[in-house]
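Before we proceed, please read the two lines closing this message. Let me know whether the structure tokens fit the sequence:

…
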Amino acid sequence: MLVIQEAATGRSLEQEFHELASQWKLETAHLSRMDKIVLHPAYLKIIGMGREALPWILRELERHVDYWFTALEAITRTSLIERDQPLTMSEATAAWIDWGKRHGYC
């Protein structure tokens, strides 16, 4: 497995992802406004990681249903949710995990 190091910190991108994901979950757990949740700085940094973050995001979804859909859509430029037929969180999670498997990220 390829481990990419952050030059300044010595942390791998995967370690950074997990730290950011933990921070995001901790600092947004009490929020109900979706805009505040998906505009959190840690969430935006994860989006900034690009496609390298996809396997980690999808693994997080496999473990626990959470609102990763905005990040997945931003990174992949793909929407699995048709606006006239919204999905439940569980359905959206299953759809993204299926997408990840079909595209080699899971």
